[in-house]
Fold:
Amino acid sequence: MNEVNKTLYIPLYGKAYVSRQNIILDDTMAEKIWAAESFPLKRRSKSKWLTYNMAMRARVFDDWTEEMLKKNSNAVVIHIGCGLDSRCLRVKQKYGKWADCDLREVITVRKQYYSETESYEMIPLDASNPEETGKLPEGKTAIVIMEGLCMYLTNDQVHDLLKALEDKYESLHVLMDVYTDFGAKASKIKNPISEVGVSEVYGIDNIEDIISDLKISLKAEHSFTPEKLINELPASDQKVFRLLYTGSLYGKIYRLFELEA
Structure:
C-alpha cells in the first residue's frame, strides 16, 4: 500500500484496542483484522490517548449513521475511504444498500475479510476523481460517511466530490471530518500519520467557502469527544484525555461537519 493507504492501520489499531477493553466500541472484526495484519505502527500511532480518540470518532460516526437510517430507512449508505473499518457490521439499523469505497489496493485487502451480499458491496473508488461517483449505487437519498478522508484531498477535490454526490442523489446527508489549515500545518510536526510516511495533508478553515456554489449546506458541527463517551474511559484516564482532546486548541485543529442537501 502507499503511504496514505497505510494510515488506515492507525484507526484500526485504536478500534481493536478499545474493543478488547469493552469500552466505546464492540468491534471484534477490528480485533481479528489487527491480529492478522499486525502492521508495525510506531510511537504516537499506538498512543493510548490516540486510540481513545480514534475509537470515539468512529463511534460518533456510527451513532450518526444509525440516526440517519432511522429517519431514512431506504437510503443508500456510502462510506468513502472505508479502509478496513467494520461500520457496516457495527451499525444495527436496517438499510437497503451499503457501499464501502476506497482505493483499489485497499478494497483488495478488504475483500480478504468481508463478503459482499445483495445489500452490501465494496467498490474501488478514487475520491479525487468525481467521475467515479458513477460507480455508486442508485437511489434517491444517500447517507455519506467521509471519515478520515478530506485531509488527503485538496479543497477543490472536496468541492468536486460533494458536487458530484449532490448531482447524483436527490437528497444527501454527509458527515465529514476535516483539518483546519492550522491543523494541516501542525500535522507535519506532531501527527502520527507522518510515522507511516504521509507528508502532505490539506485543511479547510471555512466549510462555507467549499460549498458556497452548491445546493448542499452546513447543518451542524459535532464533537468528536462527547462527554458520554469520555465517561466510558477508565476514571484515571478521563482528566488527561479531556486536556488533550476537548480544549479550545483541539477545536482549532480538527472539526466535524454535518452537511445536507
In short: The domain at 57-260 is CATH 3.40.50.150 (Rossmann fold). The chain has one domain: 57-260. The chain is about 40% helix and 15% strand.
